[in-house]
Amino acid sequence: MEPPEPDAASEDAMDSFLEKFQSQPYRGRFREDRWEEEFEKIPLFMKKAPSEIDPKENPDLACLQSIIFDDERPPEEQAKTYKDEGNEYFKEKDYEKAVTSYTEGLKKKCADPDLNAVLYTNRAAAQYYLGNFRSALNDVTAARKLKPCHLKAIVRGALCHLELKNFAEAMNWCDEGLQIDAKEKKLLEMRIKADKLKRTEQRDIRKAKLKEKKEQNQNEALLQAIKARNIRLVSEATSEDEDSASEGLSTLLDGLSFENPYGARLSVDDQGRLSWPVLFLYPEYAQSDFISAFHEDSRFIDHLMVMFGETPSWDLEQKYCPDNLEVYFEDEDRAELYRVPPKSTLLQVLQHPRYLVKTLTPAFLVCVESSPFCRNYLRGRKVHQVK
After folding, report:
1. N or C: which end of the chain has fewer CB within 10 A?
2. Is residue 58 scored above 90 in pLDDT?
3. Beta pairing partners, 268
């Protein structure tokens, strides 16, 4: 039986469709000037998959992804797919996405312990390159519970312990791995490195303990020297109990004896004599001088002669001369000043019952005798003469 011939209406409709179709360009065709971009849209030729797949923009890729990650497939197949995807990300050094893929594979809870051990070990490698050494160590530990002799997990665990400076643990992991493969090059190299670093660490600990002991002995010598001279420090002034005062003084020396705010330290010589860091303040010009080692037997005039042997740049009137300078210390509790004779030694002043040493750095005020500033500065204050 022959098919019926189309009627006139059908022929007109077909002609109309063909005319309309011919008048519109084909939107899906390849453009010669953009052929590389066109190929990038085809999953088979993509060099890199987009981070987020929009079904409208990439329908072919979305369809392919839905087939690959079909939840109806067995858990083992799904886990393997995520493992392969993670491996591809790892090759591209996209370690964060690799971690995500391996994690998704582990979420499938497949019954294959070997596959799960590989997922843990691979995720540990990605975490290692991200600098997440503890997370990586947790993963290789989990892998070894599933597969105790998994050499890759042991190698990566030893690496993590090295990064975390757990040198003894790194050596233990290496030893366990070498029992499986005595010729594993990475484990042999790591064990030598871990052993060397462990020895260095132990040596540094011994040095630190010896240094600490030496500092304690020095502080004890300073403590005894200060107590023998009846010099008052801040800690002594805040406690009436003798034992508490000694404890407070020892603590103060621990914190300040080697490095005070000015970069110097209180020290004792072979004859048991003290040298102090001393601060001279010039309130008229808001200037100061710092003497890093003022021997307790040195006189104030001796230091003034050195400091003002040449006129300082800030003394525009050239009036700061050793012969006309006055030195004071302040008793803050009483708001009183004490004038220090230039020929006094530092020890004589520090032993004064009203002098208090703060931060192990004695401080003194220096003014020009009978100058307008000095008279104004002393006005209204009670001034004592140190004998």
Report:
1. N
2. no
3. 274
Q: Are 160 and 128 in contact (CB under 8 A)?
A: yes
Task: Report the C-alpha gap between 203 and 376 in whole angstroms.
Answer: 61
Tokens of 321: 């001369």
Residue 241, pLDDT above cutoff 50 = no
- Cα–Cα dist 167/182, whole Å: 20
Q: How far apart are CA 111 and CA 279, in angstroms?
A: 76
pLDDT of 220 over the 70 cut: yes
Q: How far apart are CA 109 and CA 76, in angstroms?
A: 8
Least confident range from 101-105, 254-258, 340-344: namely: 254-258
CATH classification code of 75-199? 1.25.40.10
Domain residue spans of the chain: 75-199, 257-385
The pTM (predicted TM-score) of the whole model is 0.54
Q: To 5 degrees, how large is the angle CA 160–CA 164–CA 165?
A: 115
Task: State the CB neighbour count (10 A cutoff) for residue 111.
Answer: 11
Nearest Cα residue to 287 out of 314, 320, 317, 308: 314
**CB-facing half-sphere around the CA of 275: CA atoms within 13 A:** 13
How sure is the predictor about 245, in pLDDT bands with cuts at 50, 70 and 90? Answer: very low
Sign for the CA dihedral angle at 319, 321, 326, 328 comes to positive
d(CA 357, CA 239): 15
pLDDT at 292 exceeding the cut of 50 = yes
Residue 266: name the closest of 380, 361, 129 by CA.
Answer: 361
Q: For residue 244, is pLDDT > 50?
A: no
Instruction: Name which of 149, 150, 173 is nearest 161 in CA terms.
Output: 173
C-alpha 244/C-alpha 335 separation (Å) is 27
Beta bridge partners of 365: 281, 328
Q: Residue 186 has which token pair?
A: 């990475």
Residue 375 main-chain phi, psi, to 5 deg: -60, -40
Instruction: Round to whole Å and give the CA distance between 200 and 188.
Output: 19
Mean pLDDT rounded to a whole number for the chain? 84
Does the 257-385 domain belong in CATH 3.10.20.90? yes
How many C-beta neighbours within 10 Å does residue 243 have?
8
